[in-house]
Amino acid sequence: MRHILETIKLHKLQEVEQRKQNTSEEQLKNGVLFKRSTISLVDKIRQANTPHIIAEFKRQSPSKGIIRNNADIVSITAGYQAQGASAVSVLNDTKFFGAKANDFITAREQLSIPLLQKDFIVDKYQITEAKAMGADLILLIAKMLPTDVLKRLAAYAHQIGLEVLLETHNEKEIKDHLTTEFDLIGINNRDLNTFRVDIANSIALSQLLPKSAIKVAESGLDDPQVVTKLYQEGFNAFLIGEYFMKASDPTLKLKETRQKIVI
Ligand SMILES: O=C(O)c1ccccc1NCC(=O)[C@H](O)[C@H](O)COP(=O)(O)O
């Protein structure tokens, strides 16, 4: 069976080609938000040695199906900011994650903290789009693209003022990118072949990174004690989606989680 990322990649390539027909990159660059100054998550993390939560807004996922399809982007993302998220991540993919067309821009309109545009980037055009919709940082996934392409895309993102979170999941992906310039290194706790979450694997992989790297634990985090453990092991930030989104009150769940993390 085809890997989920391969399926997503094939779909993205088609989707992006279609969007290019409707809006040129030059048109995107003329948008108001393309010119805005971005807000740095890296600075925020370097300034405060504390567990930084990147709270994610996601309606559904390939591993869990529908999580909260009719979620209100305004109240949830505003609540995340009010409850101390260091950044908010908004899924921007419709086919696999159920994003609605205006989710990202609506979040941008009301947030003053860094906003991660969470998509599956296979083309420079999507990075221009991300900037044009008001992103501060983007995600690149090591498994999806060759190293030289990832480096080129990261360089372009930096050129237009975006920070880059590189997602990794195994030793090779980490070692291949050790010397390259990504701003934050994510380690996905979830194996996307099996959807199994393995925190011990993430801790072992994090030891391969230099102390100075900003390490982000991603996926499957549903216990403040586990976040505490990962923080003690050197992770700086925690990308949490489903745990908040499936709670009866996502922003209250973020508040409780932050209170329960021991530092
Ligand atoms: O979440 C999935 O099922 C998934 C499947 C295939 C590719 C990516 C996937 N997730 C994207 C993410 O990065 C997560 O939304 C993010 O790490 C938050 O994870 P969680 O806290 O488990 O919602």
From TrEMBL:
<keyword id="KW-0456">Lyase</keyword>
<keyword id="KW-0028">Amino-acid biosynthesis</keyword>
<dbReference type="InterPro" id="IPR013785">
    <property type="entry name" value="Aldolase_TIM"/>
</dbReference>
<keyword id="KW-0057">Aromatic amino acid biosynthesis</keyword>
<protein>
    <recommendedName>
        <fullName>indole-3-glycerol-phosphate synthase</fullName>
        <ecNumber>4.1.1.48</ecNumber>
    </recommendedName>
</protein>
<feature type="domain" description="Indole-3-glycerol phosphate synthase">
    <location>
        <begin position="5"/>
        <end position="256"/>
    </location>
</feature>
<dbReference type="InterPro" id="IPR011060">
    <property type="entry name" value="RibuloseP-bd_barrel"/>
</dbReference>
<dbReference type="Pfam" id="PF00218">
    <property type="entry name" value="IGPS"/>
</dbReference>
<keyword id="KW-0822">Tryptophan biosynthesis</keyword>
<dbReference type="GO" id="GO:0000162">
    <property type="term" value="P:L-tryptophan biosynthetic process"/>
</dbReference>
<dbReference type="GO" id="GO:0004425">
    <property type="term" value="F:indole-3-glycerol-phosphate synthase activity"/>
</dbReference>
<dbReference type="GO" id="GO:0004640">
    <property type="term" value="F:phosphoribosylanthranilate isomerase activity"/>
</dbReference>
<dbReference type="InterPro" id="IPR013798">
    <property type="entry name" value="Indole-3-glycerol_P_synth_dom"/>
</dbReference>
<dbReference type="InterPro" id="IPR045186">
    <property type="entry name" value="Indole-3-glycerol_P_synth"/>
</dbReference>
<keyword id="KW-0210">Decarboxylase</keyword>
<comment type="pathway">
    <text>Amino-acid biosynthesis; L-tryptophan biosynthesis; L-tryptophan from chorismate: step 4/5.</text>
</comment>
